[in-house]
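Running this now, will post back.
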Amino acid sequence: MSSRIINSEKLAFMLSSARANAGKSQKFMAQALGKSIGTIQNWESGIGAPNIIDMMEWFEILNINPLKYFLDFLHPDTFNCNSSSNNTEVENEKSREALLTYLKDFSPDEDIKKLHYCVLGNTDSSWSALLDLMTAYKHLPAKSRVSIAQHIIESYELEKDCETLLHPDSVMPNEAKVKIAIQDTRRSIIAENL
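Update: finished.
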């Protein structure tokens, strides 16, 4: 089997699994991208492929960060930790290696600083509690995540304007990036309900 066929199958799986994980239909994707349902079906079957702009729009419409999917596509043995093994220890080690590789080779410096602050910084909550909170957040439907994120960024900006942030000399969030994510998610929710 040629590598081109394998890559087409991997790309098709990446697109279809991202769509399925976001809970969207092929019809929804066709309407959102201005394509026919047949085109979406072909892309998800490995018959043809979207151009880079359509691919980025695919993930934007789904309101999904494409990085995980691209890493799984490019380096499946490193980043795909969906093992069928019943050995939890092996799965944990593979997850640890994938995370360390990602942090070492793919994370921007700003993300490393933010992670360092969250894990080792002077915060009132334990890292484990923050991680559980983030995990719970990721399980919520999009409407709830938008509401929570909006509240957090507005509270952060108010405290910043009042100069009452707890650690003003530490690393700060990228407010613009948070607002864009909120707006993208809102657009996705509205488009889904039209």
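The chain has two domains: 3-74, 108-193. More later if anyone needs it.
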